[in-house]
Amino acid sequence: MQNKLGEVLAQAGVVPVLVIDSAKEALPLAQALVEGGLNVLEVTLRTEAALAAVEEIARHLPDAHVGTGTVMNPGDLRRSVDAGATFMVSPGTTEKLLDAAEDCPVPLLPGAATPSEVMRLYERGYEYQKFFPAQAAGGVPMLKSIGGPVPQVKFCPTGGITPANARDFLALPNVICVGGSWMASAALLKEKSWDEITRLAREAKALALP
Ligand code: 3PG
User: What pathway, per the record (predicted)?
Assistant: First the structure.
């Protein structure tokens, strides 16, 4: 399961982190992002509409890989699988969450911010981890330092990633992709600025190209 997750993340480059207030927005938003070249989408479970949004995207947009974010507990894992998520992302981990994830048919990208957290997750088989909150937890220098003793673990840094710093993260050998919300901000969603979202997605994708 980790291999498949690695393939999806590697081709993603940049993963939009989405907060969707209305399931009606899900499809036009996802289409705008896919049009711009970003087809791995994380829908955070922070709104009532999130699971319905995942269902919509999973059902109607086979070109997209839709996952859930802000996964906090075993119930979130179950609901994500039922909604059709193809991966799940957590900001950090608990023993309960990790135990439940072991029985789950969909891969988890668990969050870590310190060497001990990274080591514990690697011990449980997690070769791919979310580095969160990336910028606040030490940014590029921190990830570079972790990569010294633990080069096996590849990260998706998220939290404080911008078009200005994304390339610096992506240049690290232990970064497989980055996540961020800038190309689908609340303001852009409120205005239904689908063309602008596509433009920002295209720019974001270019950041990840060699
Ligand atoms: C989040 O917590 O919403 C994600 O990590 C995205 O963070 P960002 O808004 O700083 O990109």
Answer: Carbohydrate acid metabolism; 2-dehydro-3-deoxy-D-gluconate degradation; D-glyceraldehyde 3-phosphate and pyruvate from 2-dehydro-3-deoxy-D-gluconate: step 2/2
